[in-house]
Amino acid sequence: NTPRRLEANVDGDFYVNTACINCDTCRQLAPDTFSEIGDYSAVTRQPVNQEEKQRTFYALLSCPTGAIGSKDVRGLGEARQLFPLPLTNGIYYCGFTSRKSFGGSSYFLVHPDGNWLIDSPRYFPFLVRKLEKMGGIRYIFLTHRDDVADADKYANHFSAERIIHRLEQSAQPDAEHIIDGMESVEWGKDFRIIPVPGHTRGHMVLLYRNEFLFTGDHLAWDREAGKLDAHKDYCWYSWSAQCDSMKRLLTERFEWILPGHGARVHLRFENMRKAMETLVWEMDK
Length: 285
Hints:
This protein has about 280 residues and is of the alpha+beta class.
């Protein structure tokens, strides 16, 4: 059926239609514009200034199903040129999420020894050209099977080397680097690969310079509750294993959480430690 505009949208240029899968991407990028209404996101407040309009265009461009539309597309091209969106210290949000990963976030990391793609966006020629200009991709780190999206296409285009756990390898059977077992792996001087079974059997996180933790579907920030969350309703393998994996992360140092699903967050190390301890306590209840 042809998607139809949702009745929950307020009047104005921007709207969401019934192709929405309620992945939360738009609400992360433009929280002043989009809200969750039932099983969908909807435009509950039209953008009122240029900054808000730009963020709403970010959401339109990043929607995995093309469910966001606008009657007025002036500014859309300008917003697209800003992707991948800079977050901090050579780390970028890719946008252009894929339906294959239910709108999962992916990240581009600029590094002197070769750039990294963490999980995969959809294969979008514009984004490919932008990544070419930024030095291409050497490694593609895949947290788990759910968020590989078009990793094989990016690997082929950039001659990049994919990293995935053996227990997730069926999602990328020809991946170049396979992580075995449950011990952490040091990758060069800046990266630590940490297996964290729970959400899936071979889920992994990537710790960069003891500051940035790319968490896939293991760990995220809950905007509404103002605390860390482990997505218990979406734990496909073992909640008890995920609890143990979360305790393991208490021994690591990081200040940023950059998830595949859920909101990103930056906290001072002491506050992150307290937030992690609270989450572990809640998970153990």
